[in-house]
């Protein structure tokens, strides 16, 4: 009997949390398609991932803000590998400013990528995930339950994403599709123009989120952790 190789699609997978998830899954023998808006970044990331397991990574230029782009991405995964088992909606952006200074363009981009982009991802992948009784995982944030100063756009997008994820979890479990939202705190990534380094050793590492995704997809079919909050064990000054 031919062994079935599972397939995952990760938005925003060329760096940060998305890349960390891809690394973990590929090491475990899962094929992974990563997306991003930069052709160079996507190609470089896919090349690095294929060094872990040759032929197991696929880079796709895609924009989560456009439904047709997400549909084309899913179609390419199906054309290449014939199935889609796991969709990790990770693409995100952050604009942080007091409401007096937050621009309409910053607001729109934040909501379009962090929230509407996940809606489009669900709509594009639904039929494929029905076929495999798959898993849809959203990467939200502790900012989805904890508001903070200068966070109006980001909080709104992540509060919305947590509510959206929990609602579709109830909708899709009747189709045999699991849905979980992961809500990390401080992660050592390039998010918001940050340059990760030794100073970030106390933070959650991208591969730690990858391990959580790996653990989720190994859970018995009868069990669904629907919302997971993740924090650094010992933040600075504690």
From TrEMBL:
GO terms for biological process: monocarboxylic acid metabolic process. Gene3D superfamilies: NAD(P)-binding Rossmann-like Domain. Residues 6-188 form the Ketoreductase domain. It comes from Pseudarcicella hirudinis. Belongs to the short-chain dehydrogenases/reductases (SDR) family. This is NADP-dependent 3-hydroxy acid dehydrogenase YdfG.
């Amino acid at each position: 009997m031919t062994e079935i190789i599972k397939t995952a699609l990760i938005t925003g997978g060329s760096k940060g949390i998305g890349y960390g998830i891809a690394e973990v899954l590929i090491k475990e023998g899962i094929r992974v398609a990563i997306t991003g808006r930069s052709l160079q970044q996507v190609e470089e990331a896919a090349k690095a991932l294929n060094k872990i397991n040759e032929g197991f990574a696929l880079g796709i230029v895609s924009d989560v803000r456009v439904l047709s782009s997400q549909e084309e991405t899913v179609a390419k995964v199906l054309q290449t590998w014939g199935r889609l088992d796991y969709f990790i909606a990770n693409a995100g952006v952050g604009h942080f400013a007091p409401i007096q200074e937050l621009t309409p363009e910053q607001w729109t981009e934040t909501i379009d990528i962090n929230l509407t982009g996940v809606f489009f991802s669900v709509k594009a992948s639904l039929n494929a995930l029905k076929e495999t009784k798959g898993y849809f995982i959203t990467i939200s944030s502790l900012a989805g339950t904890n508001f903070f100063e200068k966070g109006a756009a980001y909080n709104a997008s992540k509060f919305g994403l947590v509510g959206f994820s929990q609602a579709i979890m109830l909708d899709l479990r009747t189709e045999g599709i699991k849905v979980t939202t992961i809500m990390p705190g401080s992660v050592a990534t390039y998010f918001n123009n940050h340059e990760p380094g030794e100073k970030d050793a106390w933070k959650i590492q991208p591969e730690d989120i990858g391990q959580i995704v790996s653990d989720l997809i190994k859970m018995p079919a009868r069990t669904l952790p629907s919302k997971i909050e993740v924090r650094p064990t010992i933040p600075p000054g504690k």
